Amino acid sequence: xxxxxxxxxxxxxxxxxxxxxxxxxxxxxxxxxxxxxxxxxxxxxxxxxxxxxxxxxxxxxxxxxxxxxxxxxxxxxxxxxxxxxxxxxxxxxxxxxxxxxxxxxxxxxxxxxxxxxxxxxxxxxxxxxxxxxxxxxxxxxxxxxxxxxxxxxxxxxxxxxxxxxxxxxxxxxxxxxxxxxxxxxxxxxxxxxxxxxxxxxxxxxxxxxxxxxxxxxxxxxxxxxxxxxxxxxxxxxxxxxxxxxxxxxxxxxxxxxxxxxxxxxxxxxxxxxxxxxxxxxxxxxxxxxxxxxxxxxxxxxxxxxxxxxxxxxxxxxx
Length: 318
Ligand SMILES: O=P(O)(O)OC[C@H]1O[C@H](O)[C@H](O)[C@@H](O)[C@@H]1O
Prior knowledge:
Order of helices and strands: EEEEEEEHEEEEEEEEEEEEHEE
Shape: globular
CATH topology: Beta-galactosidase, Chain A, domain 5
Bound molecules: 6-O-phosphono-alpha-D-glucopyranose
Binding site for substrate: 72, 90, 95
Helix content: under 10%
Oligomer: single chain
Keywords: Isomerase
Structural class: mainly beta
Protein name: glucose-6-phosphate 1-epimerase
EC number: 5.1.3.15
Family: Belongs to the glucose-6-phosphate 1-epimerase family.
């Protein structure tokens, strides 16, 4: 196989396949039958399935996978920009670039994080064209892991291999699949301040758990590192743990905006919710030779009773 995708457990598997457009994808599997698929186009997680084969990420039925434009859904990586302006480059070029397998990644500090998991390492370096639009040399390493309990972890490392400092914004733009957006509630962001992109980025303080009755487009600032997305209809909770990512973007386009988006089916906003671990308010600045790490783990608890355990000492419910 020759990929530096390590297998810690003989039954876990890592396989390389081509998608309908001939784009290489790596499929990680665990012994319980869960799987994660990562495309070389944008290092986007295009699928995450639980041990029953159920898809946990939203993908638009109208998505197109024609490089460089990638489909709407999965977990795109937004780097070095992420803003709510229309133009694609506003969400950074990393998600529209072809990445490659990182054959020999430097060891991860949080080495133990990968024990008992199958994972793949990917690498992005700027091309000459990229340097024209963003004149900074970097190495972006992404490790995607699938744990025995079905949790997915993304670990990003950005190194400045440039002669001078540079700054960037970052987000794991995670499209979670939900039963019905009006049945969903987010816990853990109460009392956090947020910038409302629907009110000229005005700053507010969250009073309560977040529920959805209309379009939401907010950046929660300096938020707790553990939040929960409760899907009452599916009796399921996504528990999101993040490190090195102070902010959280919460987005649902609702009906009107959804109608105006060519790559999303009219009513599909009901089945999607973006909850992104991000570094937005304060751009990350790296001096030459410095490296930043941002990690996000999403696990699923087949219950909505878990939320009250939301302080950092949350015991793992699985
Ligand atoms: O259409 P995209 O570039 O994927 O962006 C989709 C959405 O991403 C984020 O959530 C922003 O906060 C939204 O303002 C934007 O509409």
